[in-house]
Amino acid sequence: MSIVRVALDVPLSTLFDYTVDEAVVVGRRVIVPFRRRQMVGVVMECVANSEVAVERIKPVLQALHDSAPISANLLQLLQFCSDYYHYPIGQTVLSALPARLRSDKPITIKPVLHYRLTGAAPHIDFLPKRKAVARCIVETLSVQSCSLVQLKVISTTAGAQLKWLEQEGWVEQFEALAMPQRLSVASHTFANAHQLTDEQQLVVDAVTQSAGFGCFLLHGITGSGKTEVYVHLMDYVLQRGGQVLLLVPEINLTPQLEAYFLSRFPDASLVSLHSGLSENERLKNWQQAQTGTAQIVLGTRLSVFAELPKLALIIVDEEHDSSFKQQDGLRYSARDVAIFRASQSSVPIVLGSATPSLESYHNARTGRYRLLKLTGRAQADARLPTVNCININQTVMTEGISEKLLREVGQRIERGEQSLLFINRRGYAPVLMCTECGWLSDCKNCAGKMVLHLKDQRLRCHHCGYQLRVPTACPGCGHAELLPIGSGTQRVESVLQVRFPDARILRVDRDSTKNKRAWQTMREQIHANEVDILVGTQMLAKGHDFPALTLVGVLNPDSALYSSDFRAAEKLFAQLMQVAGRAGRADKPGEVMIQTAFPDHPLFRCLQSHDFEGWAASQLAERQMAGFPPFVFQVMLRAEGMIEAEVYAYLNQARKTAIELKYPVEILGVVPASLARRANHVRAQLLIQADTRRELQQFLRAWRPVLDSLPTQKLRCSLDVDPLEF
Ligand code: ADP
Ligand code: ZN
Ligand code: ZN
Questions:
Q1: Does 462 map to a domain?
Q2: Ligand 1 pocket, CB under 6 A
Q3: Contacts of 121 (CB under 8 A, 6+ apart)
Q4: Going by fewer Cβ within 10 Å, which terminus of the chain is more open, N or C?
């Protein structure tokens, strides 16, 4: 009989000892009794002795052999995360696994239904021209069999077309039990490779020639061909039989990206890992990564915890994107964990962005990362858009849109080109006000305002979801006139409708894309040039290529210039660079117009000259003066609860214990969170910072046991290392 130490999904920073009869290896999942329940845990260590008295140690109920054990490498990575983010080891380990591996039901995988061509299928040339989707399906299936999900990437109507093809007897379904094994080295196809530009070649060479670990920051302007660099790097790795991990932000782009990379590596095995997958798909993909079958793993932040026995390269695209940071539970930054992982596996990592985070940029400037640049657009005829400001104090405005911008939109419609109006607020107006007594549409549960949604006559809180019918008279004084203040996407849409009654206007925000397929349909409409004006939030800023788009209007960016969040300006700059990158990507030059009260602000000046470097230098200088990251390292203790006094008592007590430890850290005051009340919970926070990561970690190691011993009543508390949200 021996003893194993098991990680369990409980909020305690310890492992739990159990006895086993059979030989159980580290990384094996086991079912154990825990407080009158059964739980699945992961064996972290096998030991000879326990500190617990032998008679009190319970036996493991079952060792699960339905999946390969978790590798020592991954467990080591998770141990690092648990230590660094000060999150219980058991919860860290279990939260990294696909849900199916966390449940105590043994896993059985249902076969996936695939489609393939039958012998009777005609050549694509014999299909009617108007059946474009069906033709596309037949073409795809002639290369390899596909699941419905894969085919739906072609079009939303793929399902109906498949039915038709089946009825004709040209396509059939079959159970794709095992995924095709494509382990052969150097036999993949690399399709449509461009001849790299000199700049691109230098980047590829720098990465492929580096031996072992190296962190590269690839700073390339939009359209400079970063993706082309990625695929060339992937090709290099695939030729040598390695696996590539490509991390992308949490955006509704993953199916398109998957299709894109498949088109470049048509016979490579590529799997995706993101929260949109079903539990079975996620498990299947995870296991393909684990066995080394998957050559390319494309995923959002959670995929940084995929098992990759042949990992040879990590790429983090849009490395500045804040969705790489998880905002609850294990509050990890997938980018930072990826860097640790690359160093652990002695492989290179490439962080790519047109607007690197100031943290990464600073590291590159100071030599910790290697800076690689792409300064020109990859296609010779593609030009960067011109950027101009419209001073909103010196022009006629119609409900938040300047006359000048409206005229420009009108000209685009005449020329058959598309315009995009970018406003980072959904709904009609961010607040409703009484002109008589000054009543405002406050949320009764939150410190925020209720947003007016005119379409369905509702006031909605975007923080807690609380909603009301729009009152017909002021709830304060009974006055009949209530005034919408400010603009959201719906209001912009209706102003445009009045001004351009014949224009085809498409609104893209979280409300209009609630339905899963909606966004896909919209993309098709935009590409088919069935849209004249796009009105949208940041959803539209990222990574889409709209060839007919030549004008981008930015409606109200100013609030970020005086935000209390010191990263607001950095985010705005990145966002505007990105929306600007949407304009004029094909042969037509693009134009960006920014409506602002501060046209001379350095942020807009740098945007105009496409000067990321100048902007970053000025921001870094400000951060250094003010003592903000990346010049200090921070941890945030947050607490929220129903009773204000309890929240503050806890944080003040925590602060006192931190001071008593006398470590070289700066302990700030306890302050309300930026949204001081949400869903009836009072929220407050305590920020602590140190000059180095090491000092901060030393302090945290001493502070954590003290914190764990403080009574928290019914409070929700969390530690956030390297916080992004303030
Ligand atoms: P980024 O990701 O940096 O914004 P992309 O990778 O999307 O840029 O490239 C922009 C466009 O340039 C794409 O249409 C791509 O096919 C094209 N492109 C990239 N590299 C080359 C090259 N070496 N020669 C010609 N076209 C290229
Ligand atoms: Zn009133
Ligand atoms: Zn609310």
A1: no
A2: 194-197, 200, 220, 222-228, 378-379
A3: 138, 170, 171
A4: N
